[in-house]
Amino acid sequence: MDSIETPLGVLQHTFGYDQFREPQAQVIDTLVAGGDALVIMPTGGGKSLCYQIPALVREGVGVIISPLIALMRDQVNALNQLGVSAAYLNSTLDHDQIWQIEQQIASGEIDLLYIAPERLLQARTLQLLAQLNIALFAIDEAHCVSQWGHDFRADYLNLGILHERFPAVPRIALTATADERTRGEIVKRLGLQQAASFLCGFDRPNIQYRITQKSNARQQLLQFLKHEHANDAGIVYCLSRKKVEDVASWMSAEGYTALPYHAGLSTQIRQNHQDRFLREDGVIIVATVAFGMGIDKPDVRFVAHLDLPKSLEAYYQETGRAGRDGLPSNAWMVYGVQDVIKLRQMLEMSNGDDQHKRAERYKLDAMLGLCEITTCRRQALLHYFGDPAEAKCGNCDACLIPIETWDGSEAAQKALSCAYRTGQRFGVNHLVDVLLGKDGDKIQQFGHDTLSVHGLGKDLDVTQWRSVFRQLVARGYLTVDVSGFGSLLLTEKCRPVLKGEESLHLRKDRKAERKGRGSKSIRTKVTFTGHDETLWQALRVIRKDLADEQAVPPYIIFGDATLKEMVSAQPISETQMLNIIGVGETKLERYGDAFMGAIREHQVDILDKV
Ligand code: ADP
Ligand code: ZN
Fold first, then answer.
1. Ligand 1 centroid vs 203 CA: distance in angstroms?
2. Residue 45 CA to ligand 1 centre (angstroms)
3. Contact by Cβ (8 Å): 385, 178
4. What does the pLDDT read at residue 465?
5. Cα four-point dihedral sign 375, 497, 451, 340
6. 265 inside domain
């Protein structure tokens, strides 16, 4: 690497990008000048360049500490593709390999070294580093120092040692975790009091958020995939292992490559499914929340939830796995009254002290609030995370097709009285039957056909009543008892509604997303048509072949954004090729001919046809 190159020069020549994103340039300048930095940036924001470029511009080796072993290998692969000399040290290597890499490091051949925290802290490694010229230390996934978080790593607590041993080496800590407490902990534990802090907004504008009422979840999912993501990679989240298995085999029967992933599967199977997800095109992972951490696949086009997550934190993290490459992607979810009841039930029945339950209840309420909201979903999400987000987003279901409301005060009174008159001992199905005036066995057995509420609700149909109950439970007018039978109980909040002192505006649920008008206008179509589609597919095949030859994931050769630009610009000279985003000098040299060849052939084919 030419050490006099500027950060912008490296960005353009090595990485093949035109310009920095906010605030990459400032972060890089800080480090190049020898200062420390704390960077909080959303997933897909471009954190890696913040340390990779200063490490290349400064003398010596850049040391990156990361807890995610699979990701390390990927990053090193990607850097090698760009012609950057990078390596990693972690527990997957044997003695010989480690010895070899240590030799290369000692002789100054390595510009970027990825290392697991436990390896870094070994006396032997620290000794090796002490003899070297170090460009910087980057502490990735810095939230792992937080003992309160889910990803706590004890070794991270000892990373303060870097500052003591190498006071002159600039350090950068990076994470996508926003909250203030974690930020404070990072600064304190890593001794970053003097660091310049870069806190970015948390919006992921390329992700379209959609939440729909459940009618037939599987059919709804199928329609969604068929119309919008026919050949795309994605993740489908379910709550239980059994459901993961069921959904995965059903999807396979429907012709998709759908692989299950949950903690009950052997390490080997999980590894295999994860590898296939990374390496093959269009694989869908059906998973419990066990799947996700350390998956850095940039071209996940959709994240679908068949069950509600327990909190907005979980929802945002899970949906955030879509669209790291910045291209249009979907976060899609269906939910219904049973989901709401199930989550409330799980919460009430969980053992845990009152304080804990209160915190959980607050989180669940926020999650349900997002589902039931009638205004911009993104704004609500961002507000929850402390981002002022002043404008509507224009890219969520509520913005795209405004949600209507209706005065549900009277319906709510009927529903609440029905629960009350039947002794607060019944679940939603029975209550709806009573309101509709049904006279089945169970109704007769309990004499519910003699109640004043029996048949009082014939003005609405089953779906509408279920929607009313769902909203009452979601908003906390009704709660679920701890017996496990799903009986609905009135809460204190009901009083003013029953007395007619409070009016309730309920959302009007949309008809299920089928071939209906509604869904069509929201659809995001990210693929090409006609000749462009032919070229797109041809380029994908070349990419896959090149990737297979080297046993790396396709996106390591070129990302979708790069391939898309090739389809639109159809570069056939080296200069034109270098103008494509993501094509730097090394990649041009290695792959330029293969792709330009395919583009020329395609052009000839089209001429032949006209
Ligand atoms: P993070 O680690 O913050 O999740 P990455 O560093 O993996 O994000 O970057 C996300 C994607 O954005 C990658 O595909 C990366 O190559 C791309 N990217 C980053 N910075 C730029 C830039 N300045 N111009 C174009 N693409 C960029
Ligand atoms: Zn919106």
1. 15
2. 6
3. yes
4. 95
5. positive
6. yes
